[in-house]
Amino acid sequence: MAPASTALALGDPIRPVQYLGAKSRSLSVLLKVLADELPRSSAVADVFAGSSLVAQGVARDDHVVGAYDALEHCAHFARALLGVDRAESDAPPQLDLGAGQAEEGPWASWLRRERRAVELEDSEELLTISRSLPQVWRPEEASSELAEMFLQLTPGTRPAAGLVAPLYAGTYFGLEQALEIDLIREAIAAAAEVGAIDSWQESLLITTLLSAASECAFSAGKHYAQPHRIKEGKDLAFIRGRILSDRRKDLRRLFEARLASLYAVALPEEGHRAGARTLEQLVREPEALGEVEAIYADPPYTAQQYSRFYHVPEVISAYRVPSLQRINGAVTSGLYPEPAERHHSRFCSRREAPAAFVDLCSLASGRGAILFLSYSFTRNGETGNRRSIDLPELREIVAEHFTEVTEREIPLAYRQFNAGGTSVAGRSDAEILIVAKTR
Predict the structure, then answer these.
(1) Nearest to residue 28, comparing CAs of 60, 67, 76, 63?
(2) Dihedral sign (CA 343, 345, 350, 354)
(3) 72-81 and 199-216 helices cross at what angle (nearest 10)?
(4) In the prediction, which pLDDT does 378 show?
(5) In 10 A of CB 177, how many CB atoms?
(6) pLDDT score for 28
């Protein structure tokens, strides 16, 4: 397989994966506003940390950061890149991964077939493999060995013989890539279990693995709402080129290169904190934040539940067998876990969002903290994805909890992910940073 691009900018905050809503283009403005409002070394909590980009930027501006997110893999991002509990003596962690995937075992014939298709640049064969590769949710062509493996995948348990390959090979990843992800994730778990790596090293390795996997993902924008769809009657010209370029990426080499890069940009231990916590948990246990001078929040604002875009990295992070959601007996095109196994944010519901924002404002005002709140809106009133709360209502909620509220507009040109008739022509979006405090 050919190596993929591995370049990461050293010395600056980075996104370990492609992440919807990451503040790459507005980070400098956000940091300038925080610098104007806060003295150096202030304690700041980022309660929707996501890719950890903002938390990294705030930490690099000499603030002490607590980074929290509902999703476990996002907590790994923050822990790794903020250097949470990083020992001074921590060297780049090493894993014994062996020489690579051997052409033996239950996947052998399919692995040889995929390798040959990649070698011959046969995109049509790769599409055929994608349609027919046996999976736990599509076992029709499974050999007896694969069928036995699938039967051992009990929801809620750790897999005995791989998880990513029987769930996502042929869709989000090539078979060889999926097998490599399983091999690396199992090696991380084994090293952690025997104490060969500490908690920071474990998070760094998981972050690195998810970064490499994201680079290989056969999906729009490298997100995980669903893989590219291969169906009859669809113009597959773009898909043919994309599946070849994605499948030929060498997951192992990409992982090794990314590990060196992420190790180099991760911060040293400076008292930062990170954890997988929802806003609701923080509201119930505000002492978990410690003493904070500021809370930064960038919650979701549409009906699109963000966990839908990141269910695959969440499954890889937890590495437990999910129960796949089925509708009319068929799995979803995105291979989503059952709704009960995915985080659902109140901020994405027009009915529940107002109360969620009341809780957020109460948390900040109750801790005596300045609230820095990002809000995105559209000037022309059309977005293709209605906001869960309108700006006037949000302003009223904020004003009820704080005595001094200002706004800073940050114009942005958003990339659209809606397709065809659901996209909005002439869309003109912007972002507001609301700064709320009590004198």
Answers:
(1) 60
(2) positive
(3) 110
(4) 59
(5) 31
(6) 87
Residues (pLDDT < 70) of the chain are: 1-11, 20-22, 102, 233, 303, 378-385, 411-429
The pair of three-digit structure tokens given for residue 53, joined into one six-digit string: 């980009």
CATH number at 27-86+267-298+349-437? 3.40.50.150
* Both structure tokens of 273: 């904190």
pLDDT of residue 383: 46
Domain boundary assignment for the chain: 27-86+267-298+349-437, 108-265
**Residue with structure tokens 């906001």?**
387
Give the torsion through C-alpha atoms of 135, 136, 140, 143, to 10 deg: 80
Query: What pTM does this model have?
Result: 0.91
CB of 210 closer than 8 Å to CB of 16: yes
- Bridge partners of residue 296, in order along the sequence: 46, 372
How does strand 273-276 pair with strand 64-69? parallel
How far is the CA of 419 from the CAs of 220, 235, 347, 422, 425, in angstroms? 11, 14, 24, 6, 12
List all residues 6 or more positions away from 137 whose beta carbon is below 8 Å from its beta carbon: 167, 324, 331, 335
- DSSP letter (8 states) at residue 368: T
List all residues 6 or more positions away from 259 whose beta carbon is below 8 Å from its beta carbon: 92, 93, 204, 205, 208
Q: What pLDDT does 11 receive?
A: 60
